[in-house]
Amino acid sequence: MLTSLDLLFAFILFAFVSSITPGPNNTMLLASGVNFGARRTIPHALGVSIGFMVMVLAVGLGLGEVFKAYPLAYTVLRYVGAAYLLYLAYKIATSGPLSAAEPGSRKPLGFWGAAAFQWVNPKAWVMAIGAITTYTPAQGYLFNVVVISVVFAIVNLPSVCVWVMFGSALRTVLQDPRWLKAFNLLMAALLVLSLYPLLFVESGFS
Asked: What are the E-state strand segments in the chain?
């Protein structure tokens, strides 16, 4: 079982660093914090953390082996993910000032959308596979998979919320529609750049 404190602390550090560094999730949370504020972005942040926890559980329980046996399935998933990321980048790039929108016409990504997004997020796959293959002892494996998944979610939530709060703090700076437009275009460009590992780096399942 996961009883070594050294291993646990090493995993917590891995979870923190991988959760707080830039990636598609944090880019979208930053943009959502700017455009919608912290309170309306909370379901998005919860969807990231809980959806990722479920993903780690699935990888630990054998989904990674399925992709090794059927690499075409993972290839299809990668390109579906690319298409969805491009769609999200377009939505961010074309966002206008909140005051200019019809009431209720603009909504942040919700809990279920954020949770589902983990399955097409290349960084999430790297994090999940790394957590299972590197930090999950074979003895008491099933218990350790659950521990790894829950601890990752506990570390991940406050980490991604840092990006939400930073985005919310920038709202006052980006009141000028021109600056907000420039910010949204930058966030969209970063999302497109995040496609590089998705499309051009070996998956490890082929």
From this structure: none
